[in-house]
Structure formats: C-alpha cells, structure tokens
Amino acid sequence: MATRWVSFARVSMQRPGHLVAVAAAASETVPTNLAGLAREYAKVVRHRHEVDERRADEVLSYVRTLRLWKRYGKLGEATQLPPIERQDLWLADPELPSATGAVTDEVVDELPQLGASLGLVRPHNFTRNDRGKAIVALYRADLARLNAGKSEPNLFRLVTHRTDERQRRGAACLLAHALIEADGDFASAAWAAHLAHGKRDGFTRASFGEALPSACRRLADGLARSQLTADRLVIGRLDALARHIEEKTPSTERTWGGGRPRDQVATLRLEPYVDFGLITRTSRTDYRYSLTGQQERFFHTLAETPDIAAFLSTQLVRAYLLAVGITPRAIDADEIWQRVEDAYSQLRSGLGYASAAEVVLLAIAILLDEGGESYFELADGLDVLRARQRERPAEIRYGVSRTGEPTYIRIGKATRS
C-alpha cells in the first residue's frame, strides 16, 4: 500500500469548497489537461458579481482587511465597490470561520491538482469519476443556481456554529474521507507530533508547523524496514522535507504569510479541517486555532490508528459526528440498503455500473446532510451489499478486489439479448 501523503501541499489548499467547484467543472466524458480544468474551475469561483448593497459594508471591510489591492485596486475612502469575485463574496461572509483561501492566477491550477490526488477527477485526463459525481450529486441544486449566474449558495459554507443554518455535514464527511484517504499517514504523524506537546488551545499554524520535521521522521521510521523501492524513495523525500522546513523556518514566530515550507505543509493539515468543523479557528484572518475536547479526541484517534484504511472504513463517520457535538445513532440494515439503492441510482453509468465505495459514501453523506443523529459506516454499507447480493444474486452483482472488497456494482435484473 502506497504511503498516504499529499507531498505537494500548498497554502492555496485551504477551503475544501474549492474541490466542489473542481468536480463540477470537470466533464464526465470529455478529456482535458490540467490547464483546461483549471480554466473551467476558475469560471465557477472567480465569476464576478455586483455587490448587493446589503452586503457592501462587510465586503468592503473584507477587501480592505485582506488588502486585495491587486484584484480590486486601492479603494481608499471609496464606498462603491467594483464587481467582486464569487470566492471573495463567499469569504467575506462573517459566519464563515475563515476569511482566507481565495485563489489567484498564479495558483489556479493547484486545487485541480489536489482534486486529482483526492480522487475527484482522473489524474490522466481530468474527467469526473464516481467520487466527483458523488460530490456533484450532493450539490446539484446549488450548482444549478451558480450556473444560472447567481452568486449564492456559498460553496465554502460546510459546517457553521449557527443552529438555524443548514449544515453540510455529509459533504464535509465525504471530503474529509477523500483527504484522509490521500494524506492520512502524513496527517496522522503530523497530529501525533503536535498532540505530543499537549497543545489544545491557542496554537498557530506556525507552532503546528514546527513539529512537522518530527512528523516527517516519525513517518520515515515507520517505513524504515520496508524493502520496496517506492518506500525507500518516500523516506528520502521525507528526510529532505524535514531538513528543508528546519532550514527555512525563521527564528521568530510569524503567523501570517505562507510562502515558507513550514506553512505550505501545515496548511493542508489544518485549514480544510476548520471547514469540516474539526478545528476551531479563533480568528477569521489569522492562522490561530483551538480544539474542543471532542475535536481533540478525533485527532487523537487519527494519530493513534495503526491502519488508516480501517479507520476510514469502520470509524470515520462516528468519530466525525462525535467531534462536531452529535451523539450518533446507527441505523439498521434495511434502511442502509434503501439508502444505498437510492445513491446507486444517482451514480450508475449508462451501462448500470457504479463504484461500490462511492455509492455507499454518497448514501452516508445524504443521510448526514439531512441532519439528526443517524449514521452508518462504509464497512456497514458494504456488508449490507454483500448480504443482499447473496439473497438476490440475479439482480445484484459486483466485482471483487484482491482484498475481497466490492469494487463496481450493478443493481437490476440482467436483460437477455
């Protein structure tokens, strides 16, 4: 199994809502290259709108606070705003935990790269795959409004502290699954190194980043006995990254900026989790954080797990709900199957096939987005799929991986030619 590590982390990879736009911008059938997908994705997040007068003050305050002179000019005492990019209208929302994370021309291709690493688009031709289709299915009505030229809904708004606002816990959990699947070994080591210092309250991106060389060496030590060429290469890259962070880290702490290797590497292990509701950001404009006891338990579980794949399959959803303050209640097999069938109908291809894991993950996400305490895990959904296939082998078929897990499934009676 390859090491789960996104090795090209950048400070632009802050708001996971960008990944929704990446999935939406990708075609299911027409191949493109990275530049082509970046161009289509930018049309979603950088489309400009006139500012509603009811939001003029908060948007103007945001533009001035973030000093976005390059995009909008020096406004001085002006009260009339020029047309503003969607991403900035979204980040100006004071209910959002963070005001940072807009992309510019220089980094517009980095989120599509991350989308490919997280399995939302195919890395060889950047077409949308079943995981990307699952994200788009969750946002279908929202994306239709954006495609119609609206500035809302806000794709960056996943989990907020407002009880009167819709929570996108399902979308957050699905994106968290994708991120941990791609980066879980490194994230686990990074959080183990951070938590070893007992820093729950008042830490910064800079202080989190200071423990990253230790995380690199911790992960490298875990691979030390491997004779695989790929693992030996990873060990070398981890050692080089640790030394690079140490050499480029200033002697005085600075919490702003982000060009230094320490901040580049730390951002991906912090900022997306803020939007998931797993980390509390104590300032919308500074990279300062705290953890509740529930949030800290989530990261202790991640840091201590010996098997990221098992964590994702059997623990993630319950651990996530507990971390955001919900006491989870498992649903029964009959309801799981009903929800799996409904999710399958949204992902099936023209030939009737769909990825078994993505079908189950979409079913889980739809359930969580409905609110409430109900949940089930990926392993539960796959177990129910196997049981139903044994009962109805003519109607339910699936392929099996080398580890015995269902791969692609097809539900429905076969037709005779």
SSE layout and pairing:
Elements: H1 17-25, H2 34-45, E1 48-49, H3 56-65, H4 69-72, E2 84-85, H5 86-91, H6 110-117, H7 130-138, H8 140-147, H9 169-195, E3 203-204, H10 205-210, H11 212-223, H12 229-248, H13 261-268, H14 271-275, E4 280-281, E5 288-290, H15 293-304, H16 308-314, H17 316-323, E6 329-330, H18 333-347, E7 353-355, H19 356-369, E8 374-375, H20 378-391, E9 396-400, E10 406-411
Parallel strand pairs: 6-8
Antiparallel strand pairs: 1-2, 3-5, 4-5, 7-10, 9-10
Helix pairs in contact: 1-2, 1-6, 2-6, 7-19, 9-11, 9-15, 9-19, 11-12, 15-17, 18-19, 18-20
Beta percentage is 5-15%
Structural class based on helices, strands and sheet pairing: mainly alpha
What is the rounded distance between the termini?
A: 41 Å
Average residue pLDDT: 92
Shape descriptor reads globular
Strand order of the largest sheet: 3-5-4
**Oligomeric state of shown chains:** single chain
Please write the string of helix (H) and strand (E) elements. HHEHHEHHHHHEHHHHHEEHHHEHEHEHEE
Largest sheet: 3 strands, antiparallel
Provide the number of structural domains: 3
Q: Percentage of helical residues?
A: 40-55%
Q: Taking Cα atoms only, what radius of gyration do you get, to the nearest Å? A: 22 Å
Number of helices: 20
By DSSP, the count of extended strands is 10
Low-pLDDT stretches are: none
